[in-house]
Write a structure and sequence with these properties.
Elements lengths: L4 H6 L7 E4 L3 E5 L5 E9 L11 H17 L6 E3 L15 E8 L4
Antiparallel strand pairs: 1-2, 2-3, 3-5, 4-5
């Protein structure tokens, strides 16, 4: 999707530094962190939200969560997926929040 900010980031168009990247997803720091560690796992293909996500893709994204936290020695964390405007989704491209450490605001 040409006007989607997360598509642009995932395609390398924004110069965003990635914590992790593979053929399925990128992981980068949230611009407005709500915790000491606040990363976003974003699929490289445009999927609006969890309701539109295939079982295969969500499995791959959760494997990315596991891999990136393990590689960075983040042993205690929570994941959040907001689905839909009423649930707090602001960017309508599926993304998984990884939060660890002191949480300064709730999601």
């Amino acid at each position: 999707m040409s006007d989607c900010i997360f598509c642009k980031i995932a395609n390398g168009e924004m110069g965003t530094e990635f914590v992790y990247e593979d053929e399925t997803a990128v992981v980068f720091k949230d611009l407005n962190p709500k915790a000491d560690i606040h990363w976003l796992v974003v699929p490289k293909t445009h999927v609006q939200d969890l309701n539109e996500c295939s079982d295969e893709l969500i499995g791959k994204l959760m494997a990315v969560v596991k891999k990136v936290t393990k590689e960075n020695n983040v042993n205690s964390f929570r994941t959040v997926i907001n689905t839909g405007k009423d649930a707090g989704q602001e960017v309508f491209h599926l993304h998984i929040h990884i939060l660890s450490g002191h949480v300064n605001k709730s999601l």
